């Protein structure tokens, strides 16, 4: 474990000064030597080798994902939870000179690209596909809330338009991320609440369609229209729907603690060292206290993204991107 100092909004309240040691991550070292855009263009342009990807490859198998490949798999696979592991699955996010952020495995395989659209939307693309419509999109609903959606709802694909979530101005919901502030000693720190659909099995996430469920993900209040129609057991997606009355999985930030000797806030990051001070350094845990995600800056324009079950690739990536304007 290492102690990473959090950059505070009120610099005069115990801020120790920004420490910027040389990065030790292999990815960070590589990007010091190789211009990121050239490297990433080469990664996107080339076709995966036979050992990296096959038509039957599945991102449900996180062991295969972390070896790279499988980029042609359907985007729905990115919704599935990470394989449970004693250690967090380790990834790296690299920001390009444009508005793109590249998610890569530690084996330097490009997994997904996030593209910011102003300050209120982030689109997520698969690296090997020329897509007019992103695989996933995250929109800022309020000043303090982001909602990650899959533009094409699996539940509404064969329904009349007036009975779809699109008719309600919504889409299939993959995550809801809510930001707030919490007081720690004399400091105000960022806090995250995240809601994701409940799991059907250890390796299968349920679908959350607002039109079917009658409410938004993470919201106790029903939609004014309620559910648009009874659930049909003949629907091809019925067996993937969240059970009646099921609650979303609730994850939230682990708060830093004030160290009076150092006169600063400290937060533990598992298996990471030499982290840079940043307001975007944060840790997420289950309600029972188990760490499921950590995000921290490791070099200029480079962050680590480590996560575990029950989060999926796109849910973890979205939570990291939702912190993009933290100061």
UniProtKB/TrEMBL annotation:
The family this protein is said to belong to: Belongs to the TUB family.
InterPro entries: Tubby-like_C (IPR025659), Tubby_C (IPR000007)
Tubby C-terminal domain segment(s): 243-325
Protein name, per record: Tubby C-terminal domain-containing protein
Organism expressing this protein natively: Effrenium voratum
Gene3D superfamilies per UniProt: Tubby Protein, Chain A
